[in-house]
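Hypothesis: this fold can be encoded by more than one sequence.
Test: take the structure tokens below, design a sequence, compare later.
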């Protein structure tokens, strides 16, 4: 088993006609004459009634049978007009006295003809009641023809969006293409007294792959961006690389702003790493130090990332792995970088894992070593995805008699689980230790 020194990192709208009618009557008188046969009643010519002529001196004649005055045709009227009394004739000049002639029998006043039965006034033809002109049924107002909906102008056929060229991804490490990795995380924080290096307010936390911890690489700029579960981020450009602190094993980036200093330490993957040549998994440490004068706020976030091949994991057999461990331990005595030895085995058929940690710390200010102790861990492999998790149990105590316990979470990386890695989080009396373990199959 190998040891590795510790490093640090950060990341909606009628005519009525009436007809009426009328008529007129005719009357006449004359000297006696032989009684003619009664004249037929002439059809009266509608003329006005004449003024009667004067009566002539009568010539004695045998008394003829009175000739009836022709019966005038009465003017048809609703009520017959009475025959007017004739005006007396003027007295003639006296004639010489002739031989007396016997006085003729005076012509008797003719018996007036009986008033003829008037021709009944014909009942007026009743004005026919005009057939009432039926009020025409108004033609129903036709329903307005709806304005036709204009045919919409067809939308132009959009130019098809070209299928984007797939973004290349990394199949191995080191990274050559831009990519963001959801990472496993473990974080420890404390307040360190500048004068003596002691620590207080120690706390720790861990996060799985969906916990918000990530590491991104931009191949255009060569920058790394780290993010922690609380949302804090930091970006490190190539210009912030610290050549004097970097070597074949690790690459170190430093940057400062105000009273805060950020450092990112990346374990170099690839065949040239003398500690361990890894092709699918690696880790980084984002360290944040805030200078408050007499004290320093120190936080260290571990990030474990890599090329996972969830569909290509073994389901039978077992494997052991050569590993290395890196971590940080904070307790009342101060902050210690952690190293030591570790082991890891997997039983793919039983879906179980086992690990051991034997941890030793080195004080970052004084350089004094301190043993944290040995831990045994056991866990299970997820049915899908190649992830695993388990618990760690302290085998004994630390050098001060304190017992720590905790957990670990990790995954297999590369085809057939060639490599593995996990982060751990241990807590004890006033202290906490976090770190990462990586390894490759034997």
């Amino acid at each position: 088993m190998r040891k590795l020194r510790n490093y640090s990192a950060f990341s909606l709208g009628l005519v009525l006609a009436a007809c009426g009618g009328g008529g007129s009557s005719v009357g006449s008188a004359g000297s006696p004459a032989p009684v003619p046969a009664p004249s037929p009643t002439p059809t009266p010519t509608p003329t006005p009634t004449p003024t009667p002529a004067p009566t002539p001196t009568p010539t004695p004649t045998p008394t003829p049978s009175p000739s009836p005055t022709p019966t005038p045709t009465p003017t048809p009227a609703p009520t017959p007009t009475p025959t007017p009394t004739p005006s007396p004739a003027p007295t003639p000049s006296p004639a010489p006295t002739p031989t007396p002639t016997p006085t003729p029998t005076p012509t008797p006043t003719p018996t007036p003809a009986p008033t003829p039965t008037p021709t009944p006034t014909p009942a007026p033809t009743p004005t026919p009641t005009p057939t009432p002109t039926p009020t025409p049924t108004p033609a129903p107002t036709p329903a307005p023809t709806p304005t036709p909906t204009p045919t919409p102008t067809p939308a132009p056929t959009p130019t098809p969006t070209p299928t984007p060229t797939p973004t290349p991804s990394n199949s191995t490490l080191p990274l050559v293409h831009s990519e963001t990795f959801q990472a496993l995380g473990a974080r420890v924080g404390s307040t360190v007294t500048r004068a003596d290096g002691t620590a207080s307010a120690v706390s720790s936390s861990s996060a799985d792959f969906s916990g918000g911890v990530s590491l991104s690489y931009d191949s255009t700029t060569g920058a790394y961006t780290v993010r922690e579960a609380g949302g804090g981020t930091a970006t490190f450009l190539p210009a912030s690389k610290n050549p004097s602190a970097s070597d074949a094993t690790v690459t170190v980036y430093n940057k400062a702003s105000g009273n805060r200093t950020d450092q990112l330490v990346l374990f170099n993957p690839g065949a040239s790493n003398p500690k361990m040549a890894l092709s699918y998994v690696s880790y980084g440490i984002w360290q944040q130090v805030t200078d408050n004068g007499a004290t320093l706020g120190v936080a260290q976030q571990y990030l474990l990332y890599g090329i996972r091949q969830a569909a290509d994991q073994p389901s039978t057999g077992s494997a052991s792995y050569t590993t290395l461990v890196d971590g940080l331990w904070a307790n009342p005595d101060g902050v210690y970088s952690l190293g030591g030895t570790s082991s890891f085995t997997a039983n793919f058929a039983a879906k179980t894992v086992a690990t051991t940690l034997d941890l030793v710390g080195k004080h970052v200010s004084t350089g004094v070593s301190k043993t944290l102790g040995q831990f045994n861990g056991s866990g299970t492999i997820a049915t899908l995805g190649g992830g695993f998790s388990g618990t760690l149990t302290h085998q004994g105590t630390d050098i001060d008699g304190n017992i720590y316990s905790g957990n670990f979470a990790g995954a297999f990386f590369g085809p057939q689980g060639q490599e593995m890695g996990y982060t751990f989080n241990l807590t004890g009396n006033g202290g906490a230790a976090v770190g990462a373990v990586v390894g490759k199959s034997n």
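The radius of gyration is 72 Å. Residues 176-441 form a domain with the Porin fold (CATH 2.40.160.90).
Hypothesis status: open.
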